[in-house]
Amino acid sequence: MRKEMLVLGYNTSSRNQWIFPNESNHTLSLMKPNKWMDTVISSYNDNEKNNTKLKRITPHGMRHTFVTIAIESKKLTLKQIQEQVGDSDISVIMNIYAHVTKKASKETIDSFTSYVGF
After folding, report:
1. Which helix (H) or strand (E) holds 116?
2. Alpha carbon of residue 36 to chain centroid
3. Would you say residue 100 has pLDDT above 70?
4. pTM (2 d.p.)
5. What is the maximum span of the chain, computed from C-alpha positions, in angstroms?
6. 77, 82, 93, 104: which one has the fewest Cβ atoms less than 10 Å from its Cβ?
């Protein structure tokens, strides 16, 4: 994989290499990922074989969904999630993303009632 990246012009040894660069290895326009998402959704929804339609979600919405599911799965620590999404402070994960979902709320109630013997 590294060899293929070098052929394409990516400097895999540099800390200054963007994951999704523009042609000049600078940041993409903020709207570019949204345009990619719109293209994928339109292409999928225009296919007559697909009975269900994809709903539009922003890249930030995908991030929020990932973090929420990762927290709910209890397979990753908050620190691991923080590092995965690139937040500089774990309080961002705690304050914004660690809201209690319906599933987590039910698990809390079930755990408590089991503990107290209901």
Report:
1. helix 102-116
2. 15
3. no
4. 0.60
5. 64
6. 77
